[in-house]
Amino acid sequence: MASEKYCVVVPERFQTDPNCGTICDLFDVVWLQDFLDNTEKYREKIQGHFSTHTTFSEDVVASMPKLKVVSAYGVGVDHLDVGMYNRHGVKIGNTPNVLNDCAADQAMTLMLASARKLVNGFDLLRKGQTSVCYTYAYLGNRVTGSTIGIVGMGRIGYKVAERAIGFQMKVLYHNRTRRSEEEEKHINATYCSNLDDLLSQSDFVVLVTPLSAKTKGLIGADQLKKMKPTAILINIGRGPLIDQDALVEALKAGHLGGAGLDVTDPEPLPVDHPLLDMSNVTIAPHLGSATKATRQVMFDMCIENIKAGIEGRPLASEVLPS
Questions:
Q1: How far apart are CA 164 and CA 220, in angstroms?
Q2: Could you count the other beta carbons within 10 Å of the beta carbon of residue 253?
């Protein structure tokens, strides 16, 4: 006799994912919207939650006696109140390390595309206006030999630095804790204990820090004024790290050279948002981990976290309250 499947809430986006069949084979799936519309029907059955950017209120969590684990499909868990879930006996898992390289690649992609006006050039090509590309207005910024300032020198930030030295860039970084002398030497990096020092010296500022109460609005009007007027701001962390209204104003006023954003606030931006109409802004729809190989490893880790949590085993990667 086949064993009973674990009952798990899963976002609808996986209905079109190649792994949909695997999820449905492994679990008794309740699609997220069905659960939200019929919470009373399912609350006593749910044992796990496969979470992308969704969370449940404490009242709902408290009413789910069998819920044992929430597995975040990614590294960031800023959308989850980890302490609240833990108080109700629910573990939180995530998928660190597996997307470090892809996220760092995305930072370099945005930096190069922004610096060399790649999107602008493509737009001109489509319009048959390629002669304009040779005018001064369409000249870009040199990347090789420039200075990069990395805010958040964790696993992903370090990978960004490793790529930057391939472009002979001077690497500055700001982090809660300083890296070891050996680690700094490997990437030829200089530590800036003061964020303003990094901002004032950098040609490219790359945000890789997690979102928290302390880092929300980390880059606001005052910080943007400290940056070079030719500098380009790259964000692969979380949208709310930047005060977007202040960013718009800085770009309009010519106080900043440009921006390359993989993340925004909200996601996606409204189609009439001013950032989408700016020629010196390159925006991607949160594609930092979006390669087939990486997403597969993330999926596998999520599945393992859910199974382990329900079965009372240690999670492959458990997030604890900060």
A1: 25
A2: 11
Tell me the two tokens of residue 168.
């002979």
| Contact assessment for residue 267 and residue 240, using Cβ atoms and an 8 Å cutoff | no
Catalytic positions, written as ranges: 238, 267, 286
Strands 318-319 and 91-93: antiparallel
Number of other CB atoms surrounding residue 272 within 10 Å: 7
**Three-state SS at 73:** coil
Residues 6+ apart with CB under 8 A from 294: 98, 99, 101, 102
In total, the chain counts a number of residues equal to: 322
275 φ/ψ sector (left φ>0, alpha ψ -120 to 50, else beta) = alpha
- Measure Cα distances from 194 to 135, 175, 198 in Å: 38, 9, 7
Under a CB-based contact definition with an 8 Å cutoff, are residues 264 and 245 in contact?
Answer: no
List all residues 6 or more positions away from 158 whose beta carbon is below 8 Å from its beta carbon: 179, 183, 187
Reported as a single tens digit per residue, the pLDDT across 143-171 is 999 999 999 999 999 999 999 999 999 99
Instruction: Specify the amino acid at residue 185.
Output: K
**What is the per-residue pLDDT across 80-113, written as a single tens digit (0 to 9) for each?**
999 999 999 999 999 999 999 999 999 999 999 9
Contacts of 129 (CB under 8 A, 6+ apart): none
Backbone angles phi, psi at 32, to 5 degrees: -55, -50
Q: Which residue has tokens 């209204």?
A: 245
Label residue 143 left, alpha or beta by phi (over 0 means left) and psi (-120 to 50 means alpha).
alpha
Cβ pair 111, 234 in contact under 8 A: yes
Q: Give CA 178 to chain center in angstroms.
A: 22
